Amino acid sequence: MIIDIFGAGAIGLLFYSKLISNDSSATIHLWTRTVEQASIMNQQGITIQTSTIDHHSEPQLWIPSATQNAYAIDELNNYSHIPKADYILVTVKQKDITADLVGKIQQRAGQHTRIICLQNGLRTDSLWPSPWQVYAAITTEGAKRMSINEIHHTGIGKTVIGSLSNLSSARVGNKTKSIDKEEQLLIQPLLNELQQAGFDIRLSNNIDKDIYRKLIINAVINPLTAIWRIMNGELLVSEQRLFVMQQLYNEVIEVYQAAGIESSSLWWEEILEVCRATSTNTSSMLADVLQGKTTEIEWINGSIIKMGQDYGIATPANYWVYHLVEAMNRQEDN
């Protein structure tokens, strides 16, 4: 079995490092954005810090260079001799899933390759041409990249995978299809590998709900931590902050209801619990802002704004946080 991972950020490195440290016959390839990152991992290995997760984990795990199969995406044409992947995990951020990247991923896909996209915002399956079976995946694993080849596994989470039914459209409200027994058999080898590597993973027949659940969590937590430059837990320290969170939440729920998207009355409490459980975590959006990188605000709160426009729902709170975050890293054109 061959598993390719595209994207060497925190989540990509987490999945890659845990898979290659697992005693398995599978071959794992990691495709990085830069030649430098691939070279460093191949020469120095990868270090995983796990000390804050539980008392049974090794505080630090070093995976030697001898086990590494890291390659730069831009040099993909140099590796055409490598057999095609059976499974491809796409762990890059929404903003980086472009037609050019999809074209490169296609070069690693065979006729029966399964492609799994881990995502924070609305799905981008419209970029994926047939004949490949594309899945969406949501994970709550916590990870922070400390350096090019070092990550901190900050929290154990769950990963959910579901099959997308309409690959030609990313229209809001499209329903995902149930995974039949034949498809379960085809995806099961990957699930087995991930479970053996220590991931809590399951298949979902309603991945849309999982996607929109994570979207509302991110739409409330991420922009506010980025704007206020605070850790997740600090959102809960005052009534004023909770009030702003509630405004964002209420708008998203109203948009979901107008769009016919299934929601849950428990989601508000789940958001508060995420803040408590990840109280010392830096959100991915805050990390991007601090590093001067473009954020995923377009695919998170921007998606909510667009959905609201489609269904005639005003989203002033989302509008303002969207523009505040956008203004942090964008200079006016001269």
TrEMBL record:
<comment type="pathway">
    <text>Cofactor biosynthesis; (R)-pantothenate biosynthesis; (R)-pantoate from 3-methyl-2-oxobutanoate: step 2/2.</text>
</comment>
<comment type="function">
    <text>Catalyzes the NADPH-dependent reduction of ketopantoate into pantoic acid.</text>
</comment>
<feature type="domain" description="Ketopantoate reductase N-terminal">
    <location>
        <begin position="5"/>
        <end position="165"/>
    </location>
</feature>
<dbReference type="Pfam" id="PF02558">
    <property type="entry name" value="ApbA"/>
</dbReference>
<dbReference type="GO" id="GO:0050661">
    <property type="term" value="F:NADP binding"/>
</dbReference>
<dbReference type="InterPro" id="IPR050838">
    <property type="entry name" value="Ketopantoate_reductase"/>
</dbReference>
<dbReference type="Pfam" id="PF08546">
    <property type="entry name" value="ApbA_C"/>
</dbReference>
<dbReference type="GO" id="GO:0015940">
    <property type="term" value="P:pantothenate biosynthetic process"/>
</dbReference>
<keyword id="KW-0560">Oxidoreductase</keyword>
<dbReference type="InterPro" id="IPR013332">
    <property type="entry name" value="KPR_N"/>
</dbReference>
<dbReference type="GO" id="GO:0005737">
    <property type="term" value="C:cytoplasm"/>
</dbReference>
<dbReference type="InterPro" id="IPR036291">
    <property type="entry name" value="NAD(P)-bd_dom_sf"/>
</dbReference>
<keyword id="KW-0566">Pantothenate biosynthesis</keyword>
<keyword id="KW-0521">NADP</keyword>
<comment type="similarity">
    <text>Belongs to the ketopantoate reductase family.</text>
</comment>
<protein>
    <recommendedName>
        <fullName>2-dehydropantoate 2-reductase</fullName>
        <ecNumber>1.1.1.169</ecNumber>
    </recommendedName>
</protein>
<feature type="domain" description="Ketopantoate reductase C-terminal">
    <location>
        <begin position="206"/>
        <end position="328"/>
    </location>
</feature>
<dbReference type="InterPro" id="IPR003710">
    <property type="entry name" value="ApbA"/>
</dbReference>
<dbReference type="InterPro" id="IPR008927">
    <property type="entry name" value="6-PGluconate_DH-like_C_sf"/>
</dbReference>
<dbReference type="InterPro" id="IPR013328">
    <property type="entry name" value="6PGD_dom2"/>
</dbReference>
<dbReference type="InterPro" id="IPR013752">
    <property type="entry name" value="KPA_reductase"/>
</dbReference>
<dbReference type="GO" id="GO:0008677">
    <property type="term" value="F:2-dehydropantoate 2-reductase activity"/>
</dbReference>
